[in-house]
Write a structure and sequence with these properties.
- By secondary structure, the chain is α+β, with helices and mostly antiparallel strands.
- It has 2 domains: about 220 residues, FAD-linked oxidases, C-terminal domain (Vanillyl-alcohol Oxidase, Chain A, domain 3, 3-Layer(aba) Sandwich), CATH 3.40.462.10; about 210 residues, Uridine Diphospho-n-acetylenolpyruvylglucosamine Reductase, domain 3 (2-Layer Sandwich), CATH 3.30.465.10.
- About 30% of the residues lie in helices and about 25% in strands.
- It is built from 15 helices and 20 strands.
- It has an 8-stranded antiparallel beta sheet. A 5-stranded antiparallel beta sheet has the order 6-7-11-9-10. Strands 3-5-4 form a 3-stranded parallel beta sheet, with helices on one face.
- A hairpin with a 6-residue loop joins strand 1 and strand 2.
- Helix 11 packs antiparallel against helix 12.
- The two termini are about 40 Å apart.
- The protein binds flavin-adenine dinucleotide (FAD).
- Flavin-adenine dinucleotide binds next to strand 4, helix 4 and strand 11.
């Protein structure tokens, strides 16, 4: 989130003096934990095992979680098991893409830099390599990825398969670095896929939700390693929103966070840097979140007062200034768990939609997680939300143990009315007819999927809804 606690020093409980006691006591006695929340793994019946995603929004009790060590092992798994099968990465998707009650396949043992070609900058990695490992390996070779997402613990296969992205007007989502990949099909056949040897499967397979096969390795385009200068600034949301397009055009990476019920934004830029580096310093993001939560817990019942206090307590101006290698700065750690919905809106509708979202978020007395706004350039993968033109991404979050049903009932209709496409890995309620309308090549993708997986081995209830298939266990 990039907002230092020093910048959000709140007045503390002393400021409660003078607030009508009954309302204050009622608000303070409120329990924000949502019904049915549990941080525990599900109990697995005899002979089964438990799996849960990062935010605890998805569970499974598969017969087996298999960890193939190489492609031969993986082919054996596909040929020797019956029933459904789902590949899983680091489990950072919020949607039900990975859960499976039969076999889950974790390719994390197929990881690391397999080959690097200095003449072309092409690097071949195991599909289970975590983004930060890949970035560190590239750095050793004097290379880098042009961009990275907010966290870098995801696997290459997992992040590419849902069109994971960072931010920047001229920067595409990270699956766009794929030059070729190798995949094992439902029948256990190994396919090497590139734009040259199978243009359709290549365009379909870059963002494939694990629905076409299990990917074992990727060959990726890289760029020479580079350093970045990072600056985080806090200021009132108005007139800041009028400068969004100008700032996004002026800086290599640009994003911002609206802090609910404060009237303030924290905006973050990264630009290429050639001078000496300062290093990044300790992250204070979690403490900032705790401050925003305290503000909600103490003053949430009275939005006007909450905003007044926030405005006087949050100091505007530059609160972070640092420089380092690109991969050290672009991603963060997120120890505080949350649930998230993110929609990718046609660029021309971005700020107008954000204004609506801000207004709605400010009306929610229980909201405190920042709203995140990013820009992503267009690419050509069939199921990339950025296929067909650049988009603005708006993400809303709720603490992991708190309600997020209102994402669906209140916010999703606004995103959809603006022409939004959901992040494949983040909460959404859409199904086949929605996706067929949103993606010109959706039916084409579905045909290829049916050809490669005629018995629907890679389906689970979530994917069956996306692809319009029956699911009977
Ligand atoms: C804290 C946090 C921060 C995040 N930040 C960002 C961000 O900045 N930008 C962004 O766009 N997203 C972000 N995300 C979303 C995240 O990047 C995606 O959900 C991503 O897909 C997670 O990757 P994973 O390795 O955990 O894969 P999983 O969630 O485990 O799986 C994702 C998909 O990949 C498929 N898959 C996995 N392995 C294979 C394989 N070998 N072959 C074929 N298919 C496979 C799975 O079946 C599934 O469909 C964030 C999520 C969290 C929890």
């Amino acid at each position: 989130m990039g907002l230092s606690r020093r910048a959000v020093l709140l007045g503390g409980t002393g400021m409660v003096v003078g607030i009508p006691a009954i309302q204050h006591v009622a608000w303070n006695g409120r329990n924000f934990v949502r019904d049915g929340y549990s941080a525990d793994f599900p109990d697995a019946p005899e002979g089964k095992t438990s799996w849960m995603n990062w935010s605890g929004s998805q569970f499974a009790t598969p017969r087996e979680i298999n960890f193939p060590l190489n492609e031969k092992d993986l082919v054996d798994v596909l040929q020797s098991t019956s029933g459904r099968i789902r590949p899983v990465g680091s489990g950072h998707s919020f949607t039900g893409l990975a859960p499976c009650e039969d076999t889950m396949v974790d390719v994390s043992a197929m990881a690391g830099l397999y080959r690097y070609d200095d003449a072309t900058g092409l690097a071949t990695f195991g599909a289970g390599t975590r983004l930060f490992h890949a970035a560190a390996d590239l750095d050793d070779k004097g290379r880098a990825f042009p961009n990275l997402p907010d966290v870098d613990v995801q696997t290459l296969a997992g992040s590419f398969s849902t069109a994971t992205h960072g931010t920047g007007n001229r920067l595409t989502a990270i699956h766009d670095y794929i030059e070729s990949f190798r995949m094992v099909t439902a029948a256990g056949e190994l396919l090497d896929v590139s734009a040259d040897n199978n243009a359709d499967l290549f365009a379909a397979g870059k963002v494939s939700l694990g629905a076409l096969g299990i990917i074992t390795q990727y060959t990726l385009r890289t760029v020479p390693a580079f350093n970045l200068h990072r600056q985080l600034t806090i200021e009132p949301v108005e007139p800041f929103l009028k400068r969004v397009e100008t700032l996004a055009e002026a800086h290599r990476n640009f994003e911002f966070f609206y802090l609910p019920s404060t009237g303030m934004v924290a905006w973050l830029i990264h630009d290429v840097h050639d001078g000496p580096i300062t290093g990044r310093g300790e992250s204070e993001d979690d403490e900032s979140l705790e401050s925003l939560k305290e503000l909600r817990d103490t003053f949430g019942w009275f939005p006007w007062l909450r905003q007044r206090i926030a405005r006087s307590a949050i100091s505007a101006g530059v609160i972070e200034d640092s420089s380092d290698a690109s991969w050290e700065l672009l991603s963060n750690t997120r120890p505080t768990r949350f649930n998230e919905m993110e929609y990718h809106i046609p660029r021309e509708n971005g700020v107008a939609t954000l204004r609506k979202i801000i207004k709605m978020m400010d009306h929610r007395k229980d909201a405190f997680f920042p709203v995140e706004y990013r820009h992503i350039a267009a690419d050509t993968a069939w199921l990339s939300p950025f296929n067909g033109g650049p988009r603005s991404s708006i993400a809303i979050h709720a603490a992991v143990d708190e309600r997020y049903d209102y994402f669906y009932s209140d916010f999703e209709p606004v995103f959809l009315a603006a022409g939004g496409r959901p992040h494949w890995g983040k909460h959404h309620s859409l199904g086949k007819s929605d996706f067929a309308a949103l993606y010109p090549e959706f039916d084409h993708f579905n045909e290829i999927r049916r050809e490669l997986d005629p018995n629907g081995r890679f389906l689970n209830p979530h994917l069956a809804k996306i692809f319009g298939e029956n699911f009977d266990g």
